[in-house]
Design goal:
The protein contains eight helices and five strands, in the order H-H-H-H-H-E-H-E-E-H-H-E-E. It has about 270 residues and is an alpha+beta fold. It has a five-stranded mixed sheet, covered by helices on one side. Helix 2 packs antiparallel against helix 3, helix 5 runs parallel beside helix 6 (about 175-195) and helix 6 (about 175-195) packs antiparallel against helix 8. The longest helix has about 70 residues, at about 30-100. It is elongated. The protein starts with 13 loop residues before the first helix and ends with a strand. The model is unreliable at about 1-10 and about 230-235 (pLDDT under 50).
Length: about 270
């Protein structure tokens, strides 16, 4: 035990006074203990500041994710559904002109073309709605939704092959996890298309014991997770943050394994026992 040099009948220094509760200021203080007291509180203050900085950073990233999603939806509506409806309006104008001229046969042909345009507009609307929240999740379940997603992905990205293994029954997947599985897969494949330069993706969804496991692997260029975490600029790496937060909020654990020129593997597991 160290030798105690106490400060009797005097108030501590201003720094100690700031750190200590008022009820302790009148007590004798060991000089070494006073230093330790101050250092402990300084360390706690630093930890609180670091936590607050992390919360501000995550809040900024969430806002950026939301804004990016709004921009994507606006672009889809304008470039897809907006153009389809413009063509429908032009078709209606053409049909009206033919009817005004009593050109009924031409009006009939115009209506046939208009039917196709309306069908295309409805298809575009369904695509946007499925991106926002797949109705098949509620009506048919996650397995059917993933099967639909794989078909759509393969039709759109023909240069990338998806190898899928869905080794779990619908009833074994908790309802609270189904949306998380779909969104994580959606975000992961989007990142692969944008950044990985891969031509093969392997998706595994299986149950082992009371654990549900999802893994998504690609053979792309990979990256250094530690380097990205330390050096990412605002607005970068938000897909990784989004997947991690979705896994966490749905009660799962998230892990990513990647290295330069060795591809990337995302692994998420949930307890479903």
């Amino acid at each position: 035990m160290h030798t105690e040099y106490t400060i009797n009948n005097r108030l501590p220094c201003p720094l100690v006074s700031k750190m200590m509760p008022l009820k302790d200021l009148s007590k004798p203080i060991c000089a070494l203990c006073a230093v330790a007291y101050v250092q402990e509180d300084v360390t706690m203050d630093e930890a609180v500041c670091a936590s607050q900085d992390e919360l501000r950073r995550l809040s900024a990233q969430i806002l950026t994710i939301q804004e990016n999603e709004r921009q994507r939806i606006a672009t889809d509506l304008h470039d897809g559904l907006g153009q389809s409806l413009t063509l429908v309006r032009l078709g209606l104008d053409e049909c009206s002109a033919f009817l005004a001229e009593n050109a009924f046969s031409d009006a009939e042909v115009s209506l046939q073309h208009l039917r196709v345009k309306v069908q295309n507009a409805l298809g575009e609307l369904r695509r946007v709605a499925m991106d926002l929240h797949p109705s098949t999740l509620d009506d048919l379940g996650i397995i059917a939704t993933l099967s639909w997603f794989f078909r759509e992905f393969e039709n759109t990205c023909r240069s990338i092959k998806i190898e899928k293994h869905l080794l779990v029954e619908e009833g074994c997947i908790p309802a609270s996890v189904k949306v998380a599985i779909f969104r994580i897969l959606q975000e992961a494949t989007s990142n692969i298309v944008k950044h990985a330069k891969a031509d093969h993706i392997r998706v595994n969804l299986m149950k082992a014991g009371n654990m549900l496991h999802l893994s998504i692997e690609d053979n792309g260029q990979g990256f250094d997770p530690a380097g990205r975490g330390n050096n990412c600029r605002p607005g970068k790496g938000l897909g990784l943050v989004s997947m991690k937060e979705r896994a966490k909020f749905s009660g799962g654990t998230y892990q990513i394994d990647s290295a330069i020129s060795r591809g990337t593997r995302i692994y998420v597991s949930w307890s479903c026992g």
